[in-house]
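Researcher: We're teaching a course module on how sequence relates to structure. For the next exercise, students receive a sequence and then see the predicted structure as tokens, so they can try to spot secondary structure elements on their own. Here is the exercise chain.
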Amino acid sequence: MTGLSHLDNDGRARMVDVGAKAVTARSATAVGELVTTAEVIALVRAEGMPKADVLPTARIAGILAAKRTWELIPLCHQIPLSSVIVEFELGEASILVRATARTTAQTGVEMEALTAVSVACLTLHDMVKAKDPAATTTGIRLLSKDGGKHGHWTHPGEGAAS
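Model: And here is the predicted structure for the students to work with:
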């Protein structure tokens, strides 16, 4: 029909059969950003938010989300994750979230990295909303992926970032 792997010949959604694909080492890195206020960032830096442990809580939430991606995204495969790293970069009025997921499997790990970033950002929002209910999550995207038949891919707008 359209050449999309998640559609059958009649255009219905289906889970892709990866049984014949080679097991290879794969990784993916995604990013997103919580835009807030300088006051909130100062409180996060000082560990002074009403809900304490903002970054550690968001890190654990992101890791747990990556591990549950197959339960959240209907057509994702359950894959063995060998690593999920969630990192934060505090800006003047924002928090950049970067997640890298790794596996050795028959399918990629992009959705796990994206899910980790998404849930980490949602958790950050939950943690800061008392001080900044207008905080906004933005720019969630895949930066790069490695492994499998297609090798390395980098987001066209990112240059060599990963």
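Model: If you want an answer key for the exercise: The chain has a mean pLDDT of 90. The radius of gyration is 17 Å.
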